[in-house]
Design a protein that fits this description.
single chain; about 180 residues; alpha+beta; Aminopeptidase; 7-stranded mixed β-sheet; 4 helices; globular; binds coenzyme A
């Protein structure tokens, strides 16, 4: 089981625990629709093309979605949305409020989400190659770069870097489907 870094001895179910990470003091719980006002405020400060409330609500309504809030006290300081499509889990969204970054919150969110899905299940994500902080975060959590998805981002046509944790072939994605990464990525 991926080590969530939390004081959890058995695999929690989606509704189970609300543990507090001893290192960061951050508490993790499931995200609710009532949280979306706070989530949108962080989202708008984090992305050039933020998700709308409707996009969050749609993703959260799916049975195979893990959506988590990170709290300091009673205040939401970060969130994550992880959804399963076919045989792979996709990290759809993650952000931490700018004033709370670099304190391990995103790492706790990802590890807690991974602890809530099947052990070793392949997880993939897209990230802008210019988003070095996110790429470092994912690399520090065991994600590897596999290839580029050309022109993925509609706002500026930027390519997406595709990263996986676990074996993409287990999710039915053959290794040869990835084009070679350019130098420097
Ligand atoms: C990316 C993001 C979620 C990271 O959140 P965070 O809570 O600050 O991340 P953590 O504190 O858990 O960082 C873990 C590791 O990631 C790397 N990292 C995170 N932010 C970094 C930065 N600004 N510069 C360099 N490395 C960074 C470091 O290796 C860090 O470990 P360290 O602090 O011990 O060096 C946050 O910067 C954010 O919300 N960015 C805007 C939204 C976004 O880009 N989301 C990802 C979309 S793909």
């Amino acid at each position: 089981m991926p080590n969530s870094g939390l004081n959890v001895t058995a695999r929690p179910t989606k509704e189970a625990t609300h543990p507090t990470d001893p290192a960061s003091g951050v508490r993790i719980r499931s995200l609710g629709y009532a949280d979306l006002t706070h989530v949108i405020s962080i989202e708008r400060r984090s992305f050039a093309s933020p998700w709308s409330v409707g996009m969050f609500a749609l993703e959260m309504s799916k049975p195979d979605t893990v959506s988590l809030a990170a709290l300091e006290g009673s205040r939401i300081i970060g969130y994550l949305v992880l959804s399963r499509y076919d045989r792979a889990w996709h990290l759809m969204n993650i952000a931490v409020a700018p004033e709370h970054r670099r304190r391990g919150t995103a790492s706790v969110l990802v590890n807690e989400a991974l602890a809530r899905i099947d052990e070793g299940a392949p997880v993939t994500l897209e990230v802008r190659p210019t988003n070095r902080s996110a790429i470092r975060l994912y690399a520090s959590l065991g994600f590897r770069s596999y290839g580029l998805r050309r022109g993925y981002y509609p706002d500026n046509g930027e390519d997406a870097l595709i990263m996986w944790k676990g074996d993409p072939e287990v999710a039915g994605v053959p290794a040869e489907s990835f084009e070679e990464l350019p130098a420097g990525i």
